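Q: Give me the 3D complex with zinc ion.
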Amino acid sequence: MGSTDKAVITGFICRLCSKMNRFVIHIYGEEGSRMKLAEKINTYLPITVNAYDQLPKTACLHCIERLEAHHELMEQFSFARRKLSSNDRQTSISATSTTSSNIDTTAATNSPPPC
Ligand SMILES: [Zn+2]
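A: Here is the predicted complex, encoded as structure tokens.
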């Protein structure tokens, strides 16, 4: 078939932004697996990657950076949610004051006497 002039650009197409990039990480490569790229992409992004699909398996560093930042943000949110919901449970437990289970945050069940 017709050979295109630009066929020999050194680089890979990023799966996420579809741009040609010289510095990419293979999603299913050693580093990609360590970073759990496929898992993060499938969790957070509106696309699905699969080791057996026909599309590029590379992602550029810029996209990965943003994916990682997003992951951190999501971790923060879920941490905050867990924290808030456990605080909520502790308050309701201490309000009924039945069982004294391990409450590790010192969230003042004994309120200090008023001055
Ligand atoms: Zn990209």
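A quick observation: The pocket of zinc ion is lined by residues 14, 16-17, 19, 59-60, 62-63 (CB under 6 Å).
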